[in-house]
Structure formats: C-alpha cells, structure tokens
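Sharing in case it's useful to others searching the archive later.

Someone asked me privately for the predicted structure of Amino acid permease, so I'm posting the question and my answer publicly. Question first, with the sequence:
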Amino acid sequence: MATHQQDVVATSKPQEGELKRTMSFFPALSTVMGTVIGAGVFFKAASVAAVTGSTSMHMLSWFLGGLISVCAGLTGAELAAAIPETGGMLRYIERAYGKFPSFLLGWAQVIIYFPANVAALSIIFATQFKNLFALSDATIVPIAIVAAASIMLINFLGSKAGGMFQSVTLVFKLIPLALIVIFGLLRQGTVEVSLIPVQAGPGVGGFAPALGAGLLATMFAYDGWIHVGNLAGELKKPAKDLPRAIAGGILGIMVVYLLVNWAYLRTMTVPELAGNENAAMEVAGRIFGGMGGRLVTIGILVSVYGTINGYTMTGMRLPYTMGLENQLPFSNQLAKLNRNAVPYVAGILELVIAIAMMMVGGFDLLTDMLVFVIWIFYTLVFIAVIKLRKTEPELHRPYKVPLYPIIPMVAIVGGIFILIMTLINQFSLAMVGLLITALGIPIYFYMMKKNQ
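And my answer, the predicted structure tokens:
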C-alpha cells in the first residue's frame, strides 16, 4: 500500500517554482515500486485466503489485481500529465465533472480514506506488537492510538522531519520482503501447492464472489498507483518513460507480491493462512526459526510504522487545502499552521477520526471500506480520460494512454466489477461507506450558501 505524494508537476518548459525534468527511467521505476509497496503485502494474504478458500484462486486474485492496477495506472497517468495541478485526483474529477463530485472526493478522503488508512495500519501494527511481546488483546487499541499519535507528533516537527523518517523506514519495508521471498522459496516446501484447476474453495460462495472479494482485498496492497503519474513533470521523456515506469513498476510489484504469497503458501496451508492476523510473523518464524522470525517481524513493524507516517503526512494536508478554499466547516481553524508550518489542526482532526475508527473497526473492515469508496472515484477518473478526449481534444497531453481505448476500458470494467462484487458480498459495509460519503452533500450546499 502506498505513501501518497501530491506533487506539483510540469508539462512544458520549467518555470520558476516548477519541477525540473531531471529524472530518467530507472529512478522513476524505483519510485513507482517504492511508493506502492506498503503494509498490505504482509497482512492482506490472510484475508485473501479467507475469501477465496484455495491456492489457485488466492494467486489468481493477486495476479488480476496487479493487471487491473497496471491498466489503472497507465490510464490515470494521462490526466496526471495533462492536468499537473496541486490536488491531483481532485482536479481531474473537477475538470471532468464539476466542483460537486470533486468536493465529495475530498470529503471522502478527509473523512474515510486517510483516517481509515491510519486506523487500519495502526491496528495491524498494534496486533503484531501485541503478538511479538505476548501481550493481551486489550492492549491492541491503546497501542494503536499511541502509534498514530506518536507519528502525528513527529510530523508536527515539520515536513522535513516527517520526510526524513519516511526515507529511513523505506529500507525496512524492503528487507523483510526480500528475506521472506529468498529464503521462503529456497526452503524445502512443507505444503503441497496446486494452481490447477482454478477454483474457489468450499464455503466461499462460488467463483465470481470469491474472485470479487479476493480482488477487493488485494486492491489495498496495490493502492497508490493514482499518484505515480505525478512523476510526469520530473521525467526527461514523459511520453516514453512514464508508461514504461508505470507498467514496469506495477508489474514488478505484482511479481514481488506473487512471490511473497507463493512463499506464504509453501509454508502454511490455506486454512492456516485464512484470517490469520499473525500470518506474517508465523511464516517468518517457520522460515527463520524463533529469533530470526522475531527479527523479521520487527522489520515488518518498522515498515508499517513508516507507512502510517506516509498517510499521516499527506492526509493532514488535504483538510488544510480544503480549509484554505473555505470548503469545510471551521475552515479558518483547519487552515492554521504551527511554527513549523504544519497544519496541526487538520492533523488533529484526522487523528481524532482515525482513533474513532480504531474503536469500531478491525483491519480488514476498514481497508475494505476505504478501497470500496476510493474505487468509486478511481473508476470516475478512468471514465474521465475518455470523456475529456471528446470534450477537450485540444488539451495538451504530453503522455497518452497506450492501446486506447482498450486499457481504459479494462480499468473501467475492473473497477465496476470490484464495486459490484463488494455490493453483493459486503452490502452493509458498502452502504456505510456510501452513507458517510453522502453526509458531505449537505455540507457542500451549506458551504456554498455560506460563501455566496
């Protein structure tokens, strides 16, 4: 899962304050992979196994999730390159559909997406911390709150402190992955793994429901592709290197995810993996032994802590931006900065919402809800690529999605499939997400009237 960077990019000759085109292909490729890989690869395997029930369907879900993400990234990058404005997806939605849908996206990100990410990651951090030190279940929520609050305090010291912390923890997300893949695949397999025939396991509702639920779970791990198009303004050759970096980066991530899950499945049976909140630690323990497993688990904890930092850094800046534009109640407060130029009131708001979510939801519940809500807007972005090709053919597009309109259609169909299957499989969860998003409607009209 990704750390979200909302950068200002340039599409033409750099002017004062704009980014310079100094990035070549390989730095762009590594940036894509480093941005998207997060905590989901360690902890979503358990929920994918639970909803698919078989090795073959489990691996198919990760494979198709990667392909949809490749098409999604290639599609969304066209708008990122053509509309290089601060706010990213907010500006794409506003350009294609108007201010109201754009506000709802911002509202959903402020109230659901960023707080739910922080809450879910804090819960998984606390769960692994509890298991590592054999604490009681009653400690999970307090540890999660401390984790989220401590990250917020680090960010209150300034963006430089948050950015330095993010750079340090980046290494720790790669080390456990490499160790699990290399030693897990070299180790003599203890579990028989079969990929043929591709079928759902017993008691999961059949092929289509299992695949839909599996895709929804993997999307949390692949999330972050919407922002890779923001590299366009820093690439020397965006038309050539942007699609290569996105496709190559996400394909590389897909390979890593497939290898990690293959190592999991060679170490644990599907029933052992399904719903096992401690799966990553147990797999590490079986591969490396007791002490080695604990060391790998500590590396995973640092990785998750760093991912929380990424969502905290970017999450607090969205209500701040909306406050500057007077789009939310108490905008004057949300737009306040501390002496380190950090939007501390906006940060406190996001932390309070995240803590409330920790009280009522677990990791999988929160991640599934945030994925469902954000994919509504992702799908609108894919449609917007086609819409703007027709309504604004003169718009300068330094990069155009290849194989148009096939790749955008794959992304659209994939997004619609995820949304429909979520409505079928998790109707109540989907309705809660939609209801919270809909609460922004009266807020929008109230602020419109107030600002007249």
